[in-house]
Design brief:
The complex is a heterodimer of chains A (about 525) and B (about 500). With about 525 residues, chain A is mainly alpha-helical. Chain A contains 19 helices and two strands. The radius of gyration of chain A is 22 Å and the shape is globular. Chain B has a two-stranded antiparallel sheet. Classes of the chains: A mainly alpha (about 525), B mainly alpha (about 500).
């Protein structure tokens, strides 16, 4: 038992506490829910800070390992958790966005208790997924995330919420099936006779270490080992790519984002998308470095498609929230591009991008939420001149939009530039330079759709419809500031983040070093 | 093997006694005081289950002479055998009957006549199920199975003024009789092939040779017929046609019993027969006969797909559960396909989780339909507001059926898939793929129900309050679904012991 375990299960306790509050007094549920989110954030911060120190023996902090399910023989599932810089950073992000989303949840009026219960359960699922070092445990937490998300979208969402909720659930579960299949095949390969693996076939660190010293962890399958490894690699990739989302598995995202209530969009874009990218870095790639090397070109192409396609579709949107949703597709493309290149720069860039996209897109969804609360629509054509009657709001929105389009000095820039630099010079796959050059077009497109949106919403004459809108209140500012601060601070001084992920990045780089 | 050892069948004696007592009491009590009969039945089943548990404790003790000697005790001159496998299933049957009886209690209050018959038939069906676990030859198999089935014929048509129930009963009788005749004919051929009705005769070395290499065509034909007869009981495609209609027509507690008890009885027998065909060590005979392995894989895949696809378009919850139960038979058959110790343990675990899940769902159906007088899924809209408890049990039950962690059904499915993928053959991978597709399809129609109960407004806001007894059933099932999902180790260990008893059976 340590802080990490508390961070995972405290929200679960909070969920029960929320359910015990008085049904007639929704304020109770809000306060209890918020307090638990806040304490969870504190624990997450503590966990993340610990990751600045040198790791324990295997590079993980807060290591806990206890037998959970014992089927005899090699089939032992452990409650095995621990964090390194990568997961520590993402757990911190979860806590941070949790607090902001909690503040933004104050105006949820219907079924308040249920909402906060699901909100807290979501925390348990997400933090648990980031902390799991056992494949089976990872899968269980991964699935636990689905259920609260399904309800949060389906019950408290917009007009087409039911469709969006089912679509979200089915897409992700479709991916989960591949994940489970991948876990099982890996298990059988590692326990088969002829495998040199002697450790626990569910332990992520042990398999990672083994994959580094052996040619192919599927070796016991004999002649078909390579084919099976390739299939499992792509199966895992699909499982994670659906969450990221990578084209062509992205179509659930615009629906889910648009229909979800504002705080849930924040968590969806800020954290859930990172689950997919995290899964690739933690499981998909380290288990099959050689296959990654062979397939890196295709990953690069997928990243490129995401960037360009996402940006082009975002350009065509008239709905503010849909625009932000497609911009997420485009930005996550940079993450995939950075992963494909596997250089220190590109990995640093991609992981920074994960964090910064979390804060920036969270902020953007809050921005959209503010205007939606006032106007009850998100049609870009029906705003205008908001900067005159909502100056504070316009200022915050401006920072968010410029950060997202990659203005130097704000946090979006550093991730993009590092990714592109690393990707351009990589020798990890052929034609990387060409692909990277095409991707830079995405930057221009991003600037185009964001500046157009900025113009249509904030500049010009104030639209008569919008004249009566009050500026943001204290609670709204309170929910945005925690995201605004890292956007600016890490834009000017990203060193702490780079320090934090140094360990995981260098071990990934080391993994592919011998492969060219 | 030659001893009578009649005391060994204690659970069965208790059940038979309780059944006869219920009959006798029914004749002697006035119509408005029939509640006592239900108590007698409940106590009888409880006692029988406890007796089975005590027998199990003895079998489980590694220091015991029986456990040391192969783990099997015989009675009735070898026609009745008791091992860990039998005990495990008997306890499952006992628990499901207890839950069904509790579930039927509030329903029976609205039935004006026939309480005694209902209870008695349930007890005799349970007696049949207990025997099913212990039969050691084909004659016993047939008698035990018919005891179960005939009781169910009557139970299905129990609401004799209800057209649908009568129709369902008739369909069940006609198709059931057909299946039974296949079974009997199959048994005759098997007898012709081996010269004995004992399962043990199938296990002998030369028969195993025949089975493995396609010798003795009539024996193969006989086994095929036996599989068809049993396939009917577990509603495997293409012997499933009766399922949706019977599920819809029968009273909900009967449907619940049918989908758990009757199905498990069929599976138990299938496991016993298949085990007998695998030769002395469990790796000869059919285990080497490719056509048979392919046949089981095909039936399994067809059952999975048919059940799950058929459920997509159902508007009646009982029909939907009927189709979904076909789908679940497919998953169990995946375990049969994998038939090794791991596969059998997976099936046993699957059935344990399935029992609690399905009975929980049917408890909700009974309570809801009592108030809404409808089984239409549309009438479940807004259930979450009318009764959070019912909605939650239904939610957990449906997700457990779909196989989402952290519910019990997930582990069942996981173990089955693990066993199948562990085979490592292309057929196994293909079957696992079909199974995975089935999971995704099934999730859709389960989620549609979840959507209705949580996200839609119902026509009525009137609260639905389950009775105290029903609450007990609901909480028990809920606890079962959660415990089996979060802390599976102890149950898994029991299932593994039971599976190893079956595979080492000599």
């Amino acid at each position: 038992m340590n802080e990490l375990t508390y961070a995972i299960f405290l929200p679960l306790v909070g969920m029960l506490a929320v359910l015990l509050t008085n049904k007639e007094k929704p304020q109770q549920a809000r306060v209890v829910g918020f307090l638990f989110t806040l304490v969870t954030f504190g624990l997450c911060t503590l966990v993340a800070l610990q990751c600045f120190n040198a790791g324990d023996v295997d590079g993980y902090h807060y290591r806990v390992q206890a037998v959970w399910i014992d089927l005899g023989g090699s089939f032992q599932v452990h409650y095995s958790i621990g964090v390194d810089g990568l997961s520590g950073m993402l757990i911190f992000l979860t806590g941070l966005l949790g607090v902001c989303a909690a503040l933004a949840s104050w105006n949820i009026k219907q079924g308040t208790r249920g909402y906060w219960a699901m909100f807290l359960l979501l925390h348990t699922g997400v933090i648990g997924t980031f902390a799991s070092l056992d494949l089976f445990l990872f899968y269980v937490f991964w699935e636990i995330v689905l259920l609260p998300m399904y309800f949060l979208i389906g019950v408290w969402g917009g007009p087409r919420r039911r469709y969006a909720a089912i679509k979200f659930f089915l897409y992700t579960l479709f991916g989960s099936v591949f994940l489970l299949a991948g876990i099982l095949v890996t298990y059988f390969a590692l326990t088969a006779t002829g495998s040199g693996f002697a450790g626990n076939p569910f332990s992520i660190p042990e398999i990672t270490a083994y994959a580094r010293v052996t040619d192919n962890i599927m070796a016991p399958f004999g002649e078909s080992a390579h084919t099976i490894a390739t299939l499992v690699f792509w199966g895992l990739f699909v499982a994670f790519a659906i969450k990221v989302p990578v084209f062509p598995f992205h179509t659930w995202l615009p629906d889910a984002h648009v229909e979800a209530p504002t705080p849930i969009s924040v968590i969806l874009a800020g954290i859930l998308l990172k689950l997919g990218a995290y899964g690739m870095l933690r499981i998909g790639f380290p288990f099959f470095p050689k296959i990654l090397h062979e397939m890196a070109f295709y990953l690069g192409v997928l990243g490129m498609i995401n960037i360009i396609y996402g940006a082009l579709v975002a350009m065509a949107q008239t709905d503010f929230k849909r625009l932000v949703a497609y911009s997420s597709v485009s930005h996550m493309g940079f993450v995939i591009l950075g992963f494909a290149a596997m250089t220190p720069e590109s990995l640093n860039g991609a992981i920074l991008m994960m964090f910064n996209h979390g804060t920036i897109s969270g902020l953007l969804f809050l921005v959209v939420g503010v205007v939606y609360d006032r106007a009850h629509h998100r049609d870009l054509g029906r705003f205008g001149g908001l900067m005159w009657n909502m100056p504070i709001y316009a200022a915050i929105s401006g920072v968010a939009i410029f950060a997202s389009l990659g203005l130097p000095g704000l946090s979006g820039f550093i991730g993009e530039i590092l990714t592109l630099l690393g990707s351009f010079k990589t020798t990890f796959y052929e034609h990387a330079g060409l692909i990277t050059v095409v991707c830079t077009i995405g930057l221009v497109l991003t600037a185009a759709y964001y500046l157009r949106a900025l113009q249509r919403v904030f500049l010009g004459e104030t639209n008569p419809e919008c004249e009566s809108f009050p500026d943001v209140d204290t609670r709204e500012i309170g929910s945005m500031v925690p995201l605004l601060v890292p956007t600016i601070v890490f834009g000017i001084y990203p060193a702490p983040l780079i320090d934090l992920i140094q360990g995981p990045v260098s071990s990934l780089v080391l993994m592919v070093k011998s492969l060219g | 093997m030659t001893a009578w050892n009649v005391g060994l069948a204690l659970p069965e004696w208790i059940l038979a006694g309780a059944g006869l007592l219920a009959m006798w009491l029914d004749a002697r009590t006035p119509p408005d005081k029939k509640d006592g009969i239900q108590n007698v039945a409940w106590a009888g089943v409880l006692l029988a289950t406890l007796a089975a548990v005590f027998q199990g404790v003895r079998l489980w003790d590694p220091g015991d002479s029986v456990a040391a000697g192969g783990g099997k005790i015989y009675a009735f001159r070898g026609h009745y055998g008791l091992d860990a496998f039998a005990v495990f299933l008997k306890v499952l049957f006992g628990v499901s009957t207890l839950l069904v009886l509790s579930l039927a209690r509030s329903w029976l209050k609205r039935v004006d006549r026939g309480h005694g018959e209902f209870v008695m038939l349930t007890l005799f069906a349970t007696l049949g199920m207990f025997f099913v676990c212990s039969v050691e030859d084909f004659a016993g198999l047939f008698v035990a199975l018919e005891l179960v089935t005939v009781s169910f014929y009557c139970l299905t048509a129990f609401k004799r003024n209800d057209e649908r129930a009568v129709e369902a009963g008739l369909k069940y009788v006609v198709l059931g009789a057909l299946a039974s005749s296949f079974l009997v004919l199959g048994i005759a051929f098997v007898y012709g092939g081996t010269g004995s009705l004992d399962f043990a005769a199938l296990r002998s070395d030369d028969v195993a040779q025949d089975l493995a290499h396609g010798g003795a065509p009539l024996l193969h034909f006989g086994l095929l017929l036996v599989v068809i007869g049993l396939g009917f009981k577990i509603a495997a495609v293409p012997f499933h046609v009766w399922t949706p209609d019977v599920y819809e027509g029968a009273a909900s507690p009967v449907t619940a019993f049918l989908s758990v008890g009757s199905k498990m009885a069929g599976i138990t027998l299938l496991l016993k027969v298949v085990r007998a065909c695998l030769g002395p060590g469990g790796d000869a005979g059919l285990a080497q006969a490719t056509p048979w392995i392919l046949l089981i894989a095909c039936i399994s895949a067809a059952t999975l797909l048919y059940g799950n696809l058929g459920a997509l378009w159902q508007g009646n919850i009982k029909r939907l559960l009927g189709y979904s139960s076909i789908g679940h038979a497919g998953y169990v058959l995946m375990g049969v396909f994998a038939f090794d110790q791991r596969g059998v343990a997976a099936i046993l675990y699957y059935l344990t989780a399935y029992l609690f899940t399905v009975l929980g769902i049917f408890a909700v159906v009974v309570v809801v339909s009592r108030q809404t007088k409808s089984h239409s899924i549309a009438d479940y809209a807004g259930l979450a507001r009318r009764s959070p408890l019912l909605a939650f049990v239904l939610l957990c039950g449906l997700l457990s059926l779909a196989g989402v962690p952290p519910f019990g059904g997930f582990f069942g499915k996981f173990l089955v898939f693990q066993a199948v993928v562990g085979k490592g053959t292309p057929t196994a991978y293909g079957l696992a793929l079909v199974g995975a597709a089935g999971v995704v399809i099934s999730l859709y129609y389960y989620l549609v129900i979840v959507k209705r109960i949580y996200m839609e407004e119902g026509v009525s806001e009137e609260p639905i309050v389950p009775s105290r007894g029903m609450k007990a059933v609901l909480y028990t099932c809920l606890a079962g679904v959660f415990i089996l999902g979060i802390w599976p180790s102890p149950f898994l260990e029991l299932a593994q012991r039971a599976a190893s008893a079956l595979s080492s059976a000599s």
